[in-house]
Amino acid sequence: MNNQKVELLSPAGNLEKLKIAIKYGADAVYAGVSHFSLRIRAGKEFTFETFKEGIDYAHARGKRVYATINGFPFNSQIDLLKKHILTMAELGPDAFIVAAPGVVRLCRELAPQIPIHLSTQANVLNYMDAQVFWDMGVKRIVVAREISLKDVKEIKKHLPDMEIEIFAHGSMCFAYSGRCLVSAVQMGRVPNRGSCANDCRFEYTLYAVNEDHGTLFRLEEEPGVGTYIFNSKDLNLASHIQEILDSGAVNALKIEGRTKSPYYAAVTAKAYRSAIDDYYAGKFDANLYQKELHTTKNRGFTDAYLIHRPFEKTDSQNHDYALSKGSYEVTGLVTEDEEHFLCKYKVYPSEDIEIFTPKDEVLSECENEIGKIFKKEDGLYYINFKKILTETGKELESVHSGNVNKIKLPGKLPYLTMFRIENIEDNIVE
């Protein structure tokens, strides 16, 4: 059985989101540099220098960074991959996340000091496959998303020293273990090499053809039923954390989303941190975590396959829309000096704006000529600006996201604190 407290692993699409994830409760983050990571867009956000800065930031706070090298290389890339592995190893990450068996072996040869975590792309569903990778020197397996909790426990029974990580939240792929070719066929962007165009999220018009005489006609959808035929709902296992941790088989819970927003990184880290901590404190309350998670952009939520078998599921696809905006809009982000914020949406004087802080931060109420920070009867803290002043003292009637000037706060707030307001605009992105 696993007697050690489960690890919370968050995505870090860039240095700012790495810091946010850690500030809001993650024990570890995962990120990549270059096209050898399965998220090319996120990989481009990091240079080797900023990745090293992120590792140093995490280590200074007792947190961990796992480097993704989980793409599937062609023969022509192997020499470049060898150089990449050596360079990444010099930065001192806490593990490599790898998918291809050949890359596992290469990492063990070139950087034996760096532990290997096996990517979910390797599709481990049973203890036999897990044993193969354990014998190759893999320390942790991120099991296939299609696995059941029963099978996770079976792997742990046969390999008690193998660490097991599961995905707990984030986007789901409609293809089995992400093995999709739709983007490659339609856009020339290969999903298993990090450049998926998310074609499964598009709306499609359906046609039928009679091949005998070439008749082609459009299929009319029922009223209220869309044509997002490949569009999987997002994974959300927050309500099942107690059941998962009771199993004793899971060592780490992973959140998907390196290309998601800073707000997503903050909310998911804080919600799952609270869920884990509350479990160990004996006060687990799924409603609290779900309330926060539903404020993020999502495609609707599903508990996928860990608790229920695939053939038991009838609610894993969203056929009606591509993405909701979430119930809240982020309006500001507090800067490192803790005396200013940067506008992320729009802020006006005399409006109450909710303050969303990193985990375990304690706020103090204050009021002056700039504005006030105060606590309402709902137990939440808010900020209300009497004046909107830039760092240089210029007064503005309002501030919008296009304005890059720092705006003065009425009192100090923790670095990376966010301001948010309820989203009253159309909540669906088609």
TrEMBL record:
Organism per entry: Arcobacter aquimarinus
GO BP, sorted A to Z: proteolysis
Listed InterPro entries: Peptidase_U32, RNA/ubiquinone_mod_enzymes
Protein's name in the database: Collagenase-like peptidase, U32 family
UniProtKB keywords: Hydrolase, Protease
Family label: Belongs to the peptidase U32 family.
Lineage top rank: taxon: Bacteria
One Pfam family of this chain: Peptidase_U32
Gene Ontology terms, MF aspect: peptidase activity
